[in-house]
Structures are given as structure tokens and as C-alpha cells.
Amino acid sequence: MRPHRPSASQVRPSPQAAPSASRSTSSQRGASPSQRSSPSAQGPAMHEAPSTHAPPSPGPASSPPPSGARRGSITRSAGASPGRAAGRLSGSIHSSTQAPPRQVVPGSASQRGSPPQRRVSTASSRRASPGTKRVRARQPRTTAPSGSSACRSIPTSASSRVPGATPSESGSASSLGTGSSAALGCPSIVAVARTAAISTPGSRSVSTTRSSCVALPPSHPRSSASASPAHRSPALLRPPEPPCMTRIIQHDRSLPGCPLPAPSPAPLPHPLPRPSPVQRHPPAGQPRPASLQPRARRARARRSGMPTRREMWERLGEDVDVLVVGGGITGAGIARDAVRRGLKTALVEMNDLAYGTSSRSSKLVHGGLRYLEHYEFSMVFESVSERRILMDLAPHLVNPLGFLFPVYRGSRQNLFVINVGMWLYDGLSLFRSPKIHKNLKPAEVAELEPALDRSGLKGAPLYYDCSTDDARLTLETALDAAHEGAIVCTGAKVKRFLKDERGRVAGAAVEDTLGGEGTKEIRAKVVINATGPWTDTTRRLSSVPGQEHRDVLRPTKGIHIVVAAEKLPVEHAVVCFHPTDERVLFALPWGDRTYVGTTDTDYAGDPAKVAATAEDVDYLIDAANHYFPKHPLAREDVISTWAGLRPLIAPPEKASMSESDVSREHEILVGRDGLITIAGGKLTTYRRMAAEVVDKAVRLLKLTRMLPADLKPAKTDENPLPGGRGWPEDDDHDAVAGRVRAASQDVLSPEVARHLADNYGMQALEIGAMVAEDPGLGRALVEGRPEIMAQVRWAVERELAATVADVMVRRTQLFYRDLDQGLGCADAVAHEMARLLGWDEKTQRAMVKAYADEVALSRAWREG
Ligand SMILES: Cc1cc2nc3c(=O)[nH]c(=O)nc-3n(C[C@H](O)[C@H](O)[C@H](O)COP(=O)(O)OP(=O)(O)OC[C@H]3O[C@@H](n4cnc5c(N)ncnc54)[C@H](O)[C@@H]3O)c2cc1C
Q1: Averaging pLDDT over each range in 111-115, 212-216, 669-673, which range is the top one?
Q2: pLDDT (0 to 100) of residue 416
Q3: How far apart are CA 533 and CA 556, in angstroms?
Q4: What is the DSSP annotation of 197-210?
Q5: Does residue 467's CB lie within 6 angstroms of at least one atom of ligand 1?
Q6: CB of 246 shorter than 6 A to ligand 1
Q7: What is the pLDDT of residue 761?
Q8: By alpha-carbon position, which residue is closest to atom 2 of ligand 1?
Q9: Rounded Cα–Cα distance for residues 623 and 626 (Å)
Q10: Which of 80, 143, 428, 459 has the least CB density, counted as fewest CB within 10 Å?
Q11: In the structure, how many helices (H) and strands (E) does the chain have?
């Protein structure tokens, strides 16, 4: 008998969805990065008054230009969030300037006037999309004068104990105040930005942001039927701020041993005095590639403009302004933002880029529909705004996807209520969702998703969010930072922090975990801890006796299972509630595979050892079998699993809160030793989080008089990631694939060319050219699959891949998608890497073994 299907209102938030309503949201919600970065870059005082925002024009936006119209204008938009107190909107600012006409590729369809392609988001459309309609060269975004902003300080109303913070990190009412400029002169500030999205009553925010206007037809998934194309980072009107969401700044220069400068801060010496020399520790237990690479490879890499991993390691000795610890999406975003502002930046990652949670998410760039149940309007607003921006920054990686939300008889919420929620969701995106939702009748649902159970089905709203490749998004973000001049070094583990004579963190001792080069010291004016689930471990590295950091995280584990698409055929993401505990789950189409996730359970072990258990897998299989009874799954159908840890901020009342109720919000902590820590948050909002953290770093640098001159706005919302540069504005993946195939001189099949276009964007053209030069690189890694040997070479030469696992898991996804998880081609991959990296036989074998161990860990549940 079918278990009771819960209503939407009964269901707890999804792992990526609603946090508890009392949690804070971003501290500068609504302010565009450029708005935030620009003043910061000029060195603002550490003044925590929120920027003042102008509300958007929330009403019907202007009609989209006619199909095929040229990009006509750059519009500066201002927006207010429909925050909690929806409707408290007060005014708007719009301005526009003429942009140069868009180039049209001669002979392209658009020039010929053929209709643009409609591209949304089903598995089939992504597997075999319709033919090319038109290709347009993406214009570099035209800049306009940055928007004005005004600030109004707000009274800080409450004393709020920061969960997990040491006594010195939690504010008291008397010591709090966002507007006290006197206090701002104290770099011993311990600032806990609970990243409030909201401000006190009466405060108003004005933000203008520049936006490119892309003419797309109403039906286009990257367009919207009724929206002005202008609003990309609208600002928020902030409703009253509950005490627990108050941003806290503590100034306590009187604390014994306060290492920070006196009220009139004297400039710290720079370069900072060197602490005692660091012992060199040869790394143990890791396969060590030979340290020297063949000369030809180095020369090739130099031609490509991407330094090799070894060159990155050699550069690590240089002094920098900002040292970022952690190469997940958060650290990558911070590095990109910082270097684009003109700060000399280094990022160190102990393993591979995206090794942690950032390759183990549900791979969605989404607003989080479920947050609406908890009235987290501003959080949804921020996420959908970022979704829109990411669709422009990485159009090849962030793709619209239809979500079907089946409603069954017995649900407490009826379709009408859910429909209202859908309108709200679309409205919060200012009707710039990939497509506006619609309500489907049971027969229509059956037609779209024949595998879905129909008994008791009342209908299903179909709405739109985006899917992505989380690892590649992280990779491109970090590599873009490297292109801009950041040192991005993988296999570099922070072992301890360097301190100056005042006890301030002044760099780190970093161990080479790949090349066996021992330990190096990096001197940095400011250090940022972005180590996700390792946040507390990293914080402890800076503790001094008697002032140990308390843990701030409550990590929870989420797993996914991957099955063949024919075993669980879905064309859309299907949102469902687990039949036993009512948690939200997704079944997601993924080319020739479908994945189901996710779980949400507390986790206390080593983050590097997180893995699915048999219980986790059965839990997901049960849900899938409940909703897709005609396609029953068994354990044997599971091709692969992945498990990740959410680096969630521990709530004060940990014991009484379930895992799913823990907030997904981020927090920024500034320790008394100056170490900045960011934890929590979502993949979707990484860019905004990064801007907030760099703002914080810039303030610290200013206070310590170490802020470099001539900083500039980062404009991370305007410059596409490498694969997105030149991507056709009509988002025609097939058109790019056609060009990739041509670049390979037709060595590549259309399917392989499409696979490369989807994963590498416009950079796939270079891979195509590589294959034209050496057709042997076009051979498949696994018979019948689209991954090719050229990807291995590209990964090593251009993407800092240094182990077989780097290639299998985070560069090609063979770990997840291949029936034997890439074990069958691991030797061939290792052989090619050995040729490129100069590995000896022993290293090669060790690399293959290390990869096999990783696969074994992901399969350990089979024994349970
Ligand atoms: C199951 C699950 C599903 C999710 N789904 C979504 C989703 O669909 N959409 C969404 O927006 N968000 C989602 N999230 C959230 C999102 O994935 C995370 O918030 C995000 O990836 C965290 O990134 P991070 O950079 O903070 O951490 P990580 O990606 O874990 O990066 C931290 C890095 O620090 C490195 N490191 C640690 N210690 C050191 C050291 N001492 N020296 C050098 N480097 C070090 C680690 O190796 C690691 O690579 C999901 C999370 C989970 C767990």
C-alpha cells in the first residue's frame, strides 16, 4: 500500500533548501558586487552599516525585444528585494546607455533571420538537441559608470550569542554597534557577519548594477516572457531584523593580550618580519610524481598561458596580499574576486580543486523553492539573482532544467497554494526564470514523465531552475583567477599559520602533498579560511593556548546514487517527498544517467573519508521505487555513489534541531588574530559570498594600513568564465559542437564534439584543434563513451590535474558515469599522465592504486 504522500507544508526543507527562518542572510544582499567592491577597493572604513538600496521596479517588466533583435542596451537597474514584508517597495532607479551593436557572425542563422532556438532543459534535449539555428559572437560586456550608492547606518539592536564562537567572538549588547566609527579604528574587531539580508525598519537601500541586455525571444530559456532584461543584481529592501540575525561587531582592545593596534593604528611593518624557519616535512604515504616535467610540456603550458602546477608551487614563496586556504567553490570565488580587484592573491588547496563538497553537491544552481515555506524570500531572491548571473557567466555549464513537482491526492497543500508559491518563485526572479512555470494536468504529466506513478496524481507544476557541473564550475572559477595572475596551487596543505610579533596571522606554512618538496612559507597580509567541512580543523591551526577556537560547524552528510537512464527514465528533475520522513528528494536526468539524492544526516568523522552507507542507498532506492513503481530499482542497479558534507553553521540550539532544519546560510568570522573564516552557504551564491569576504579583507587591510593602492572593482558578475567567452547568445550548444568538430577537422564525432562543447564551452575549440594536430588524442577512454584522451592532456596541461583521480573524478566524471567507474581505463590515463608529467613506473602504479582505493571507498556500502 502506498504510504501517505505528505503535503508541501508538512515537509522539512531540502538539504539545499530552506533554513530555519530565524537565520541570517547575506550581509549585503541586493548590493551588486561591483557596488560593494568598488568602494571597498578604495578602502572604506570598517563600517558595518548596510548599503542603502533602491527598490526595483517589481511590476511588469518591459517586453523582451523581438526575436533575433540585436543587443540594444546596457541597462543599469536598481532593485529592492521583495523581502519578508513583501510589497514594501519604495521607488526605483533605472538608467540605460547605448551599447555597441552586437557582432553577428557572417552567414550565421541570426544574420539570415532564422528563428532562434528554444532551449530548455530536458534530458533528451541535452542528449540530442535540435540542430543549429544561429551562432553569435558574445560581445564583451560594455561597461557603464558604476552605480551610485548611499549608506545609512542602522542601530544594532540585539545581543546575540554567536554559535560556536569563543567568548571573545560573541558580542554583548553594550559592545555592539554598526555605526560606531570610533570602534572601527580598531583592527581587533571580531566581526561576525551573520550576513543579514535585512535591515532595520525604515532603512532603505539603493543599489544600481550594470547589466548587459541580451535580446532573446520570450520562449527562450535564458529569456523570460515578460521581463526587462536589465535586472541582474537588484537590491533589496530589508524588513526588520530579528535579534538573531543582527550583524555583530565586537571591539575589545582592552582584552588582555589583544594583539591589535591601538586606536591610532601605526602601520605594520611590511613586508612582515619572518617568523622562525619551518621544518621541512616530506609528505608520507602519498604517491609522488617526479618533480621535473618534460621541457616540451612546460613550453606548451607556457604557450597556453596557464602555469603548470610545479610553476605554481615555485611561485608560492612570493609574498601576497591575500592567501586563500581551500580550493572549493568558496575559495575559488574569493581568489577570483580578490585578484580581479588588483590584490596579489594565492590560493592553496591540499588536494585537488573541488576535491571537497564542491564536487559532491546535487549540482543545482537554484533558488531553493523550499525556502518559501519558511518565508525566506530574501534568500530565494538572492539565489535566483545569482542563478541569472551564473547563466551568463558560464552558459555552457549552467543550463536551464525543468522541475516537475507532482501533487497527489491526500496532500495537505492543494494545487492552488502550490501555484501561488510558484508565482512567488517566478516573481522573486523578477520573472527572469529560465521559463515561467505552468501547471500540468495528470494527463500532461503522464505524457511528459511516463515513468512517474499516476495513481492519485492531481497535477504537477512545472518550473525552472538550473543544473550544473559543480566541479567544473569550481575549476573554471579558480583557473580564471589564475589567468588573472593569482597563484593557484593544488597539493598544497596549510600545516600551520605564521604569526607576526603582535600575534596576527601573517601567512602560512604549506606542505607539498604532491611533489614531495617539503614545506614552504607564504607571507600574506590577510589570510582567508575557506575550507568548507575542514573549517574547524583549519581554525584550530591558529589557536593559541588558552584561546582555543570553539567549533562552529555542524556538518551533515548528503549522498546521491547514479543509475542508468533507462533504469529510471526521467526527462525533467522530479521533486518528491520521501515516503517515510517527508524530506525533499530529487530524481535528476543526467545524460545517459539519472541520479537521485539526497540524504541529510549528521556526520562527525574525517571529511576525507565520507562515503555512502547501505542504509543511505536503500533510503534513496525506496523513494525512487515509491514514485516510479514501473521501474523498480535494486542495489545492483547503482552504478556509483557520491557523498558530500554540508559545512553548515551549528545553530545555538543544536540538540533540538534536525539536520534538515539547520540553516544553509553562510557566516563570516574574523578572529582576534585576523584570520577570516567563511563557512556555510551554497554553491549557487558563491560569487556573492566571495565578494563579501573580500570586502571584509579589504577593510582589514585598510585598518592595518596595508591596503595596496589602485584597487579596482572586481566585476565578477560581468566577465564570463573562460569557457563562456564567445558562447553564442542563443545558447546553441550544437552550434558550438559543430565548430568543435570543424576544429578537429572532423576527426571527432558529433556526439564527442557535443560532449566537449557542453563541458568546456568555447575552450572545446582548442581541444578540437589539439585532436586535429594529433588524431590519436581523439580515441575514446572507454569504448562507446564520449570521453577522449585529449581531455586527459587538457586536464594536465591546462587544468592543473596532477593525479589519476583528478582526471577521473573532477575533470571527466568517469568515476560517476562509467559502468566500472573508469577502472578499466585508469592504466591508460595514468600512462598518458606519466608521459606528460614524467612519472616513473612506480608512481604510475601508485596513482592507479590510489584511484582504485577511492572507487573502493565509494563502493564500501555494498558490503554493508
Ligand atoms: C549533498 C549536498 C548537496 C548540495 N547541493 C547543492 C546544490 O544543489 N546547490 C547549491 O547551491 N549548493 C549545494 N550544496 C552546498 C554546496 O555544495 C556547498 O556549500 C559548497 O560546495 C561548499 O564549498 P566550499 O568551498 O565551502 O567547501 P569545499 O568544496 O569542501 O572546499 C574546501 C576545500 O578546502 C580544502 N582544504 C581543507 N583543509 C585544507 C588545508 N589545511 N590546506 C589547504 N586546503 C585545505 C579541501 O581539500 C577542500 O577542497 C550541497 C551540499 C551537499 C553536501
Answers
A1: 669-673
A2: 81
A3: 9
A4: S---TT--B---EE
A5: no
A6: no
A7: 98
A8: 361
A9: 5
A10: 143
A11: 22, 26
Q: Spell out the domains of the chain, with CATH numbers in brackets.
A: 8-20+399-465+554-660 (3.30.9.10), 725-863 (1.10.8.870)
- Ligand 1 pocket, residue 333 CB under 6 Å: no
Ligand 1 site-directed mutation target among 358, 465, 585, 858, most atoms within 8 Å of CB: 358
Contact by Cβ (8 Å): 641, 858: yes
- Cα(23) to centroid(ligand 1), Å: 20
348 in contact with ligand 1, CB cutoff 6 A:
yes
CA distances from 173 to 177, 255, 710 (A): 8, 17, 38
| Residue with the three cell numbers 544561429 | 134
Pairing outcome for strands 573-577 and 399-404: parallel
> CB neighbours of 228 closer than 8 A, spacing ≥ 6?
57, 61, 62, 75, 77, 430
Mean pLDDT of the chain: 72
Atom 9, ligand 1: which residue's CA is nearest? 364
Q: Pinpoint the alpha helices (H) of 552-659.
A: 614-627
- One-character DSSP codes across 51-120: EEBPPP--SPPPPPPPTTPPP-EEEEE----B-SSTT------EEEEEPPPPP--TT-HHHHTPPPPP--
What nine digits make up the cell of 574? 522530479
The C-alpha atoms of residue 738 and residue 437 are separated, in whole angstroms, by: 32
The C-alpha cell of 582 is what? 517527508
Q: What residue has cell string 571537497?
A: 356
**If pLDDT is split at 50, 70 and 90, which confidence band does 661 have?**
low
